[in-house]
Specification:
By secondary structure, the protein is α+β, with helices and mostly antiparallel strands. The chain is built from nine helices and 15 strands. Helix 1 runs parallel beside helix 3 and helix 5 packs parallel to helix 6.
């Protein structure tokens, strides 16, 4: 039984999700205490409960402490089972975080799986659907893990109601770690604004502000189609496509925040990435650690990547991964970025 302190490091929900994912992959049970104890609303929220329930269904786990606001959870996994699954957060909580909880385990199954996920598709503090589709999934395919993602319906806070469909193929014997140290040549950059059920002027103002600041032409600025019943919501996204990867940056509009401020905040994110030569941005550097560690474990060879920033979120994720896998992370400052090395223990 692995014992994990949920208040350690960054102290958020990712400690739970990484623990669940790797418990299923390795068959190792764990106990998690002090879950999100430093948060304004500590313990398990509804989207965390959905993650636990989804994990338990995928592997037939024995679980204790699965209730709202619980700060103690024990999870003893069974065998991962491929199949057709449907998981709905029931609120605007992120369904992409539910996907990232079960995705690694279903790679270890013996047959393809299909998922139908409901909830928020574009949430602050969670990977938006387009980040997974354009940044994360292509790297997973290079790793040997084939997946198809389909967005059926947008879902924003507070309404939710989004829907994603995912097909995952088994890859246990196909995972091959690789180095990712260079972005490669720039291919293109473009911005999109999703603003269902909001005046069209909101999207135009955000795109115009961003375009003027980054020097992008009108054909790089796109008002994304959205149905009225997918809102109200507002997500402004910038996608930077390079030879070796794509990065997606997102800012969300909310009441009392001007369209111009949303655009300015996104411009700051994009510029911070552009002035650094490292391959991965801060969010992808965090998200990439777990699948790369699985490939290092299975392939018994090391791999590295460069990133613009190492967040507390990423460093905490490294520590949790090391509790479950015989893999060790080391980091080294490199220019104005970082190099992360994952190697077999």
């Amino acid at each position: 039984m692995i014992e994990i302190d949920g208040s350690a490091g960054e102290g958020g929900g990712q400690i739970l999700r990484t623990s669940l994912a790797l418990s299923m992959c390795t068959g190792l049970p764990f106990t998690l205490t002090k879950i999100r104890s430093g948060r304004a609303k500590p313990g398990l929220m509804r989207q965390h409960l959905t993650c636990v329930n989804a994990a338990a269904e995928v592997c037939g786990a024995e679980v204790h402490g699965i209730e709202l606001n619980s700060q103690l959870l024990s999870f003893a996994p069974g065998s991962v089972r491929a199949g057709d699954y449907s998981f709905n957060v029931g609120t605007a909580g992120s369904c992409t975080l539910v996907l990232q909880t079960v995705w690694p385990a279903l790679l270890m199954a013996d047959a393809p799986s299909r998922l139908k996920l409901g909830g928020g598709t574009h949430n602050p503090m969670a990977p938006p659907f387009h980040f997974l589709e354009r940044s994360y999934a292509p790297l997973m395919r290079r790793l040997g893990a084939n997946v198809e993602l389909t967005l059926r319906r947008l879902g924003f806070y507070p309404a939710g109601g989004g829907e994603i469909e995912v097909a995952i193929w088994p890859a246990q014997d196909k995972l091959r770690p690789f180095d990712l140290k260079d972005r490669g040549a720039k291919v293109e950059g473009f911005a999109e604004c999703f603003a269902p059920a909001l005046p069209r002027s909101v999207a135009r103002r955000e795109l115009e502000q961003l375009g003027a600041a980054l020097g992008w032409s009108t054909d790089q600025l796109r008002e994304a189609p959205a149905r009225q019943n997918e809102g109200p919501g507002n997500a402004l996204m910038a996608t930077l496509v390079y030879e070796n990867l794509s990065e997606v940056f997102t800012q969300f509009g909310e009441k009392g925040v001007s369209a111009e401020k949303v655009a300015r905040d996104l411009v700051r994110e994009v510029r911070a990435y552009q002035v650094c030569e490292a391959a991965l941005g801060p969010h992808l550097a965090d998200q990439w650690a777990l699948p790369l560690a699985l490939a290092v474990w299975k392939g018994q060879c090391e791999a590295s990547y460069t990133c613009t920033e190492l967040t507390p979120h990423a460093r905490t994720n490294f520590e949790v991964i090391e509790r479950f896998l015989p893999v060790r992370f080391s980091t080294l400052g490199a220019g104005n970025g970082w190099t992360v090395l994952a190697r077999p223990a």
